[in-house]
Predict the structure.
Amino acid sequence: MSALPLFPRHDGRQTVYADAQRKLDRDTFLGMARALAAQLPEQTHCLNLCDDRLPFMLSFCAALLRRKCTLLPLNRTEAALAELAAIHPGIIALCDSPQTHAGIGQMDVRNWMTAAPPAGRDENIPADMPSAELYTSGSTGAPQPHRKTWAMLVQGARVLADELNPGGTLLGSVPSQHMFGLESTILLPMQSGLALAGGCPLLPQDIQSAMQSISTPIWWATTPLHLRACVESGLGFPRLAGMLCATQTLAPELARAAEDCFQAPLHEIYGCTEAGAIGLRRPAQSETWRLLPDWEMESDGETARISGNRCEGRLALPDHIEIADARHFRLLGRHASLIKVGGKRMHLDALNRILQSLPGVKDGVFYQPSEGTRLTALVVADDPDPAALMAALRQRIDPVFLPRPIHWVPALPRNAVGKLPMQTLQELVDTLSR
């Protein structure tokens, strides 16, 4: 296919976006996007720093209409943005709040969120056009850029739509700049016929309020961090049609508690920035993942690789993977999380899941200062009880992996999608150790 539409399953009067103030059908939204596209400068790239869903989707679609690649940095530190400005001189940032970044001009897209002549048809975008450049999370090293064509983005969203068959309205509690956020809260609604709800609620009370204001059926895209907070809040939530979760492997106990809390199936996505969604499972029912139909997977015992139209060549995955059969696999942990202490090996990912499942622990992470050394742990708890924590850990893990020391902290420095960038974690441990 040489070109692919923006909204293939919406008709002209069907809602593509809704919040407390407005509903926008496809033709009205595309009219606004065309008006914004006409104002974009000539540079081949633009920077999308919008936080709310409507400005983000409007900016993203306007860039596509103007044949521009959207840059989606995972963080907005001056160093990260200065590096992008050096690579792309004269770049413009599309924003929905006042921002000042050296070397980067800005456009407030809220000025174009007004009435414009409605479009009379959908728009086709060249399939091979570079459409987005995303960055890895930095949880296992320095963030790396990855460019996506429009065909890659469309295919990932359509595969998810075919697998999940969602309907109604989608609410997101994950930023759109992340690969999971872009795929689930922007591309999936655009390609499946869903309406996209406004906002990005993160706290349980805000999530509850947002869900209560949306007409059913409701789908929710979220992270384990926000799932746990909602389950433990004791609040009552509306019954959902379905949930999507990614960014960290879900513990079965949390998955079952979430399905009880929201009375809906919870679908977990395994993926990465390099490829997008790779596999699906319902962790409340099975630890085994189902490979999405447009991927092929193979393994030499140490490294699993996938191939398909959404990546170039054969992509080596960052996880230890056990292939069950041609279409199913199990995750054992990240290559970077495999540690050795006292001649014994263990994945930090597995230790973290055990720690986070213990009674009284709100959040926690293991950390190894250097290869072969004893582990330390950072723990968030309302009522720290070192003796009880160590007793519980002794029942679950080998003694060589018991952490010493344990640092009790008010919160872990997780980023917007719930991950712990390695450099940030190292800096925190160094500060606590001093």
The first strand starts at residue 3 and ends at 5. The radius of gyration is 22 Å.
